[in-house]
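Quarterly update, task 2.4: nicotinamide-adenine-dinucleotide-bound model.
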Amino acid sequence: MLLHVQHLEAWMTLSGKRAVVTGSNSGIGLGVAEALAAAGAEVILNSFTDRPEDHALAAELGARHGVPVRYIPADMSKGAECRALVEKAGGCDILVNNAGIQFVCAVEEFPVEKWDAILAINLSSAFHTTAAALPGMRAKGWGRIVNVASAHGLTASPFKSAYVAAKHGVVGLTKTVALEVAGQGITCNAICPGYVLTPLVEAQIPEQMKVHNMDRETVIREVMLQRQPSRQFATVEQIGGTAVYLCSPAADQVTGTTISVDGGWTAL
Ligand code: NAD
């Protein structure tokens, strides 16, 4: 037993593994990419933009952690681009489906194009990337699929019909894929964060202020963190650490499940 504890650091190394993280030029995706790079993985950053600063971000991350980091643009709202991302990466050992958007509106007024975009980016992209990544993982007999779902994959809130539907779908997809690859050295799990202060959450604050007719501080305290018993935002580093754990041998038998990082939200 002690022997295993002494080897804990070696257990956490992801050296020799290639990770694709969708939607990773910002927020949680960037935090997860950084944690995987810090653990020694080669990392592919992604978003739909193709700006010099996207590629500079990859170069900077790679230099900081001494691992290869590339930026590959691909629009996760388009199935063919999702699949092409995995191909252009040269396949991957670790796939983190993280890209996501949000829109807050009553269901009967919810714009159809927003519904379609949220379902495509937050749910269908994970189907396409997973389908593209699995043959390579099967050939190697090792793979890790980490889907960034949400507390909204397990519970609901009003005015977020598309997001809640998509995230519940991600949890369902996670369980199904886990069953299809069980016993093949591949695991598939979902991380369910509560509120993490990222650009996605920042963007929700004005909308929530309007919907609830409250000021910024009251929305943060009474609406957002009201359901998070710790009354603290989770951090991108904590989500990154959870992803590294799911990629470690400690999690070899952890599959088809959800891990909440939500300050107690879903315990209520
Ligand atoms: P964010 O806006 O900071 O990051 C979203 C990322 O997705 C960005 O890199 C963005 O460029 C990318 N993206 C958006 N549309 C894309 C597209 N069409 N193609 C490719 N990339 C695209 O938001 P975040 O808070 O870091 O969210 C990341 C994930 O975490 C999302 O799936 C979100 O639903 C989930 N999540 C966030 C929170 C939170 O509180 N922030 C809580 C639970 C779950």
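Highlight for this quarter: Residues 198-233 form one domain.
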